[in-house]
Structure prediction request, 490 residues.
Amino acid sequence: MAQPLPIQFLAPDLDALSAVTGRIAVLAEPGQPFSPGFRRLDRLTRGALSRAASSEAFAKLKPGEALDLAWPAGLQAEAVQLIRLPKKADVAQARKAGAAAGKAHGAGGTLILAEGHPRAADIAFGLALRAYDFDSHKTGEKKAPGPAILAVTNPEAVARAAAPMAAVAEGVFFTRDLVNEPANVLTTNDFAARLAAMQELGLHVEILEEDQLRKLGMGALLGVGQGSESPSKVVVMEWRGGGKDEAPFALIGKGVVFDTGGISIKPAAGMEEMTMDMGGAGVVAGVMRTLALRKAKANVVGLVGLVENMPDGRAQRPGDVVKSMKGDTIEVINTDAEGRLVLADVLWYAQERFKPSGMINLATLTGAIIIALGYENAGVFSNNDDLCNAFLDAAKAEGEGAWRMPMGEAYDQRLKSRIADMMNVGGREGGAITAAQFLARFVKPEVPWCHLDIAGTTLAKADTTLAPKGATGWGVMALDRLIRERFERS
Ligand code: BES
Ligand code: MN
Ligand code: ZN
Prediction:
C-alpha cells in the first residue's frame, strides 16, 4: 500500500541551508516581509530570490502557486521553489502550497521553509496528499522519495496539529490505492482480505459469504454477482469509539470490482475505467481506516457490497425478476443498472442489523450524474435537510465538490413495473435521480439518509490540486470531518 510521506517538523537551521541538496521550497507574499529563511537564501543566491519575488511572473501567481529556480548559483540545492502564500492564507490555499512542493517532490527530498506560518500543518497535509504515486505495477528501477522536512518555528505544536491529518492522508491513500488497482488484482476476495487486514487497527471486520447472503435473502445483490467467478460478499467494518449504547452511524458503499454491464454489456471504449466502480466501497474503507488510525470518539459502521458484474452462462438476464432482502421484487430491465441492486440489499441489511442513527451511501452509480454535474461535484440526494446540510458544509470546508439534487414522487413513479414491485431503471432523463429514488425505496423513512453519486468525482482525467491523474479519494476528508463535527463534540 502507498504510504503517505513521513514528514519531519524541525526548527529552521539557517546556517545549513547552503549545503542542503534536493529541493528547497520557501514561502513569500508580495507586500509582506520576507522570512528569515528567505532572506538567508536570497543572500546566498546574491539576490536571485528577491528578484524572482518581485517579478511579474510571481505577481501573477495565485496563493498556493509556485515558480521554480533551477540549480541556483550559491546553493547545493536542485531547485528553490518560490511559493506564493500570504500569512492569512485559508486552509485550501495552504494545502495547495504544500501540494506544489508535493508534486515536485522526488528522490532528493524537499525542505519547506514555513517558519511562522499559521497554517504549516495544512501545508504538510497538502504536500503528503499530492506526493501520492501509484507505481506498484511499474517495473524497473524505482527511486524511493527522499525525506520531506518542514522547517517551522514551533515544531512540536505543528507536529501535534498534523498528526490527525496524517491519519486522514492514510485513509485517502487507502481509497486511492483500492480505486486505482486493476480488477484482476482487486477481486472481491482480494478486496475483502485488504479490509480484514484492518482488524490490526482495532476495527471489527466481518465477511459475509454467499451462503449467508442467500440466507439473509439478498437476491438483488446476489443476482448481480452470479455471472462472475469471484464470489459476492458483504463486508462489515465496525469502529466503536463512542458511547456504549450510542447507535452507530452507517456508511455504505457500492463495491462493483468490475462493471462490464453484464448481459446489457457496455461498449468496449472506456470500459477499462470500470475498475473504479468499487469507488463507493473504497471511500467507506478509507474513512474507516482514518477513524481507526485517529481513534475517533464515535460509533461508525461501514458496510460494502462486493460483486463483479460479468456476462456469463449463469449471468442475470434483462427481464429477470429478483427478490430483495426487504421483500420487494425487482424487474431487472438493464443488467448495467447493477449498483442500485447491490445497495438495495446492503442498505436494508444495515438498517435491520444496526438501527443506525443515520446513514450515507456512496456509489459510482450513474453516468447521468456526470452529464448533470460534470467531474467537479458529486450528486447529493437526501431525505433529511439537517444531515444533508451538515454533509454539504463538511464537503465545502474540505474543498470536495458536492451539490444537492432534487427527489420526488413523480420521479419515483417512473420505476413502476408491469410484473414486479419495481423496475431497476427509470429511463434516460434524470437518470441519476431515478437511481436515487430506487435507493430511497430501501431506506426507512425515519432514518436520516444521504446518497452520494460519485461517478464523476472518483477518478480524475488530469492532475488535480491534491492528486495526480487517477483516483482522487474524494469524500474521505468530508466524511471524516462530518463524523468529527457531528459525533465527536465533547
Ligand atoms: N458504474 C456505472 C456508472 C458509471 C458511469 C460510473 C460512468 C462511472 C462512470 C453504472 O453501473 C451504470 O452502468 N449505470 C448506467 C445506468 C443505466 C443503465 C440506467 C448508466 O449510467 O449508464
Ligand atoms: Mn453498470
Ligand atoms: Zn456500475
Remarks:
- The longest strand covers residues 249-259.
